[in-house]
Amino acid sequence: MEPLTGTTPTTDQAPADPAATDDMLATQPIGYWSGLAHTAVTRQLRDAMARIDVTQPQYWVLNRVDSGLPAPGREEVVTQLTPLAEGPHEIARVVDQLLHRGWLTTDDRQRLHLTEAGEAARARLRQLVTEQRAVVHEGISDEEYVAALKVLRRMVANIERAEPRSS
Fold first, then answer.
1. What are the distances in angstroms from CA 158 to CA 82, 105, 149, 163?
2. Which residues contact 74 (CB under 8 A, 6 or more apart)?
3. Which pLDDT score is estimated for 8?
4. What pLDDT, on a 0 to 100 scale, did the predictor assign at position 1?
5. DSSP 3-state assignment of 104?
6. How many Å apart are CA 38 and CA 44, to the nearest integer?
7. Which residues contact 9 (CB under 8 A, 6 or more apart)?
8. Rounded CA gap, 131 and 113, in Å?
9. Degrees (nearest 5) of the Cα angle 82, 88, 90?
10. Residues whose CB is less than 8 angstroms from the CB of residue 132 and which lie 6 or more positions away in sequence, other chains included
11. In angstroms, rounded to a whole number, what is the distance separating the alpha carbons of residues 100 and 40?
12. Could you report the average pLDDT of every consecutive run of 10 residues in the chain (167 residues)?
């Protein structure tokens, strides 16, 4: 089969095979392997957080409120973090949970701020995330990690460039 005009010849795509040997990896579907990695990493992190009664979206909100930028309002946090969430209402619920828990407070302009307890939780979670990252990165050099992310970033850019634009 001839490559499409303007494209680079590629290796044929094989079905996903968890037992693929190194010499077969070039034929493996990125969607399968990136999905498997996403699921494993997310599950590992969320399980570790659940053991201390915290969720990953709560960590996202604590970090956003403590980002060093001017204190955000509720809607700003919801707008910024909803693309990461599992639904359009999740982040708003998380803000409510953190207000109820006493980890967030609002000022007279309805801007969100971490409380002392919220900052302590954020710092504790940062340590937990750092520990979990070490587990994921075991045996992987920074150079290998950077190379993997560069490849994934390029794949995303390729897909976005190839997507048809709707009017």
1. 24, 42, 14, 9
2. 92, 95, 106, 110, 112
3. 60
4. 45
5. strand
6. 10
7. 3
8. 26
9. 75
10. 44, 45, 48
11. 31
12. 54 85 89 94 96 96 92 95 94 98 96 97 96 96 96 94 75
Tally DSSP H helices, then E strands, for the chain: 6, 2
Altogether, the residues listed in the chain come to a count of 167
Q: Give me the residue label for tokens 């915290």.
A: 54
End-to-end Cα spacing for the chain: 33
Residue 110's Cα: distance from chain center in Å?
28
Q: CA-CA distance, 165 to 167, in Å (whole number)?
A: 7
Q: From the CB of residue 114, how many other CB atoms can be counted at a distance below 10 Å?
A: 20
Q: How many CA atoms lie within 13 A of 88 on its CB side?
A: 0
Rg (CA), the chain: 21
DSSP 82: G
Structure tokens at 34: 């990136």
Q: Where do we find the tokens 């034929």?
A: 27
pTM value?
A: 0.80
Q: What is the dihedral of CA 84, 69, 129, 36, to 10 degrees?
A: 20
